[in-house]
Automatic annotation (TrEMBL):
CDD domains: Peptidase_M17 (cd00433). Pfam families: Peptidase_M17 (PF00883), Peptidase_M17_N_1 (PF21337). This is Leucyl aminopeptidase family protein. Gene3D superfamilies: Leucine Aminopeptidase, subunit E, domain 1, Zn peptidases. Residues 313-320 form the Cytosol aminopeptidase domain. PROSITE patterns: CYTOSOL_AP (PS00631). Keywords: Aminopeptidase, Hydrolase, Manganese, Protease. It comes from Sphingomonas kaistensis. InterPro entries: Leucine_aapep/pepB, Macro_dom-like, Peptidase_M17_C, Peptidase_M17_N_1. SUPFAM superfamilies: Macro domain-like, Zn-dependent exopeptidases. GO terms for molecular function: aminopeptidase activity. The keyword Protease applies. Belongs to the peptidase M17 family.
């Protein structure tokens, strides 16, 4: 993991290269006040203050051999990524934002722009020395570093190939965090899984013994505190099962455990910040493989809840494993449940890669989540739990089908399926997130991505820390 603490430090007045944040509206005023003989350089470089533009200019201070103009798009609406292009392209050194404008959330992009998963590079790119940012908000430094670490964890887990990240390795990731912190971990697999969590067992039964399915649980906090359950879909690879995906649809299915990565990252943040909650982390970890004992279209399975499910499509497996995990969370008396899942292609058709489809049975919780997402630059989009579509999950033989009998509203019907396993009176939110960035942007390389993590963290922090 990148040493983010070495890249962001409280500003104690040490020498540093100034970063002048400008937008297209402010640039003429800045040039009039500061440019002097540097004006021809700005004009020659055609620097306009657009987002992502940077320009190194001669320094005017006693230490700064150079200063940097950083285009940020709109100063009135800075994003967490406004410094990311600078952090990627500037030379090694120490930097501070000039003037009174603090880095704030912009420091997150500065940190993540310097993180890459290099495990699989035989000849990694030539290393660039650290670009250190001095923060005028020392109280926020540790929190920003924790968010960067959580985001990098999601990215690295999602980017790891399925051959190196099966259910056992996902369990190991939980134990490596939980063990040093003295956090209780319980893993259910084998006969106990088949008897107690039949949907999780059925989805993962076709995998090899080395990649056997399991339910991973971790508990932390005072049992007297409000109970918060975090559930993450951990399908380490999804072939589609007997309803086999085409090659193009299978190519990125190492990322189908992105929900589990989000859940683990959020749990780590909660524990590190010592929230007054009783935390219950649940990760059903499976590989949806193909063999002679794979579950079949037309099979009828009995869930832990007791509801029977007719299998219409073996590629609608994520909702099955989540159903058993949600049931377990309810049994333990959770007051609030959050689940993350790379659940449906329909969500991407509707909202594209950047916006997690957000569902909730609690309007107050939903409003908090959406507001926090806007504030954190981690946007969400709420979709309805439309009761009128419940009939799409009807089965003639069982209590319900695992897949709608219609091509419409696929992300909504998946959420409606999950809702049947959430007990009345429990505030619940479901995030159908992509966990992937299909094209690179500054600070956000192509590959695994945390989408919705910061929004949920901010919203829940306000809810539970004020209790």
């Amino acid at each position: 993991m990148t040493d983010f603490a070495a890249l962001l430090r409280p500003d104690r007045g040490e020498p540093a290269h100034p970063l002048h944040l400008v937008d297209t509206a402010l640039l003429p005023e800045w040039l009039k006040a500061h440019a002097g003989q540097r004006r021809p350089l700005v004009d020659a470089a055609r620097f306009e203050g657009k987002a992502g533009q940077i320009l190194i200019i001669p320094g005017a201070g006693p230490y700064a051999e150079f200063e940097v103009l950083v285009g940020v798009g709109k100063l009135a609406a800075l994003t967490p990524w406004c410094l990311a292009a600078a952090a990627e392209r500037l030379p090694e050194g120490t930097y501070r934002i000039a003037g009174e404008m603090p880095p704030g959330a912009a420091a997150l992009g500065w940190l993540l722009a310097q993180h890459r998963l290099t495990r699989y590079k035989s000849k990694p790119d030539a290393p660039v020395g650290p670009r250190v940012l001095l923060s005028a908000e020392p109280a926020k430094v540790e929190g920003t570093i924790r968010l960067a670490e959580a985001t990098a964890l999601v990215r690295d887990l999602v980017d790891t190939p399925a051959a190196d990240l099966g259910p056992a390795e996902l369990e190991r990731a939980v134990r490596d965090w939980a063990g040093p912190a003295g956090i209780e971990v319980e893993v259910t697999k084998g006969d106990a899984l088949e008897q107690g969590y039949p949907l999780i067992h059925a989805v993962g039964a076709a995998a090899t013994a080395a990649r056997a399915p399991r339910l991973i649980e971790a508990r932390w906090g005072d049992p007297a505190h409000p109970k918060l359950a975090i559930v993450g879909k951990g399908v380490v690879f999804d072939t589609g099962g007997l309803d086999l995906k085409p090659a193009a649809g299978m190519r990125l299915m190492k990322k189908d455990m992105g929900g589990a990565a989000h859940a683990l990252a959020l749990a780590r943040l909660i524990v590190a910040e010592r929230w007054p909650v009783r935390l219950h982390l649940l990760i059903p970890a499976v590989e949806n493989a193909v063999s002679d004992n794979a579950f079949r279209p037309g099979d009828i399975l009995t869930s832990r809840h007791g509801l029977t499910v007719e299998i219409d499509n073996t590629d609608a497996e994520g909702r099955l494993i989540l159903a058993d995990a949600l049931t377990r969370a309810c049994e333990e008396g959770a007051a609030t449940i959050i689940d993350f899942a790379t659940l449906t292609g329909a969500a991407r058709v509707a909202l594209g890669p950047d916006l997690p489809a957000t569902f909730s049975n609690d309007d107050s919780l939903a409003a908090d989540l959406l507001a926090a997402g806007t504030e954190a630059g981690d946007p969400l989009w709420r979709l309805p739990l439309w009761d009128g579509y419940d009939d799409m999950l009807k089965s003639e033989l069982a209590d319900m089908s695992n897949s709608a009998d219609s091509p419409f509203a696929g992300t909504i019907t998946a959420a409606l399926f999950l809702r049947r396993f959430v007990s009345d009176g429990i505030a619940w939110a479901h995030f159908d997130t992509f966990a992937w960035r299909p094209a690179p942007k500054p600070g956000r390389p192509k590959g695994g991505e945390a989408l919705g993590l910061r929004a949920v963290h901010a919203a829940l922090a306000r809810r539970f820390r004020r209790q």
